[in-house]
Amino acid sequence: xxxxxxxxxxIGQSIRNDLTKRIExxxxxxxxxxxxxxxxxxxxxxKVYVSNKQKTCEELGIYSQLITFDxxxxxxxxxxxxxxLNADPAIDGILVQLPLPKQIDESNVLSAILPSKxxxxxxxxxxxxxxxxxxxxxxCTPYGVMKLLEYSEVELSGKHAVxxxxxxxxxxxxxxxxxxxxxxxxxxxxxxxxxxxxTLQADVLVVAVGKAKLITSDYIKDGAVVIDxxxxxxxxxxxxxxxxxxxxxxxxxxxxPVPGGVGPMTITMLMENTVQSAENELRQDKRSxxx
Length: 291
Ligand code: GUN
Known about the structure:
With 291 residues, the protein is α/β, with parallel strands linked by helices.
């Protein structure tokens, strides 16, 4: 059975249309949502991601501020910059593009961001809230995957969801969000000996490993929903995912393409978190006015 495509570009656009209305309302209240993006060093992929984020901010009318540093930046200087953005009322969201150069401790940096401006959802407090199912900023890629599943009306309750990968950015939070929707979740990773045996049981398979076309159709149960978080280059230097799309699409019920699947959703959810942060701020202002 050939699968249906989950179109991240279209679903992302529909969420952005809603965001435009929310931003208009904020503007009427005299508020312009603002995102600060910090880029350290000159990692080529990070530069592309950051410029896409800025472009999307511009399209939506979100104020964006790009702060760039040389790769030899000290952790102290970076944290000082974050502290001034924490105190800046024009900034609702702060994003430090990862990875960071090795002299900088990532966890110290992420912990320095005010949880109320942590639109990446990487602060330990926000991760804790996510684990408890409390209202918070959700990490953008897993949040985007949940939106793709919701828009495609994929039932998760009682289903076996398998997540390949256990990164802080994608794999770990992905499993938690699927669990909150009552899926039975299995994590597999590079040390799992019987990968195929487990993926063949997956009703929903989320692949986030960073290896071009690793998952072929022999890893897939008939009718599975396959979400490909990977972004790689194939032997012809063309963009491709972690899933071998051509073979897997013959077996899956739903599949995300690369590009045009998860990628556009990650940026969209960053915009959503930034707008949400500005709305939270407005609510706080109104509450203090009423005191
Ligand atoms: N590097 C790769 N993905 C991400 C992301 O979602 N957020 C940040 N800050 N850095 C990343």
